[in-house]
Here is the input.
Amino acid sequence: MKRLSITLLVVCSVASAEEVPLKSQFRDAATHEELSISLRKFQQRDPMKNLEAVEGEDPSKVNIPVSILEQSDIISFGGFATLVPKQAIISAPAQFEKYLELKPGTKIIGWLDFYAKNRGWITTVEVSREQAQGYEAIAEATRERISKSANLVVATLMGGPISVFPPQEKKDEQTAETAENSTTTP
Here is the structure.
């Protein structure tokens, strides 16, 4: 008890010796009138009031999201299944058609885990984003390798499955411009 009281005395004496006067700041509270004025000013600056009404259909009702199962193909084998985007399966030989459906009691796992368990009969082909979007064609050598493969072939981008759209026919703008220029020039 003596130690506690001595310690307390020492602490109090040190605290009183180093006492720094605190300056308190008092502020006036906002009145109802001041608050209502600031609210009116804010409402006058509200950018939503300046927007015009949009005509046409409500985009949230037009673009209703669909089920992930409707947007995916299913690959299943050995009690496990995975989802890949539609058009990600480039080649599916007849012997693998039975693996492209979901069977009852199948556990759905991620692509990487499924592919690691089934590398023996699944082949992946890495494509670029431009190829997946159909802006560029897949190289002839790659297409030949796909056609000769006896495995299920899935298109991937950075290791993950991706839909591959058929190549779009490009309109050669430069040739159209040069043809236009040559006919207009006398």
About this structure: The beta strands are 72-77, 80-85, 89-91, 107-108, 122-126, 152-157, 160-161. Confidence is low (pLDDT under 50) at residues 182-186. The longest helix spans residues 2-17. The radius of gyration is 35 Å.
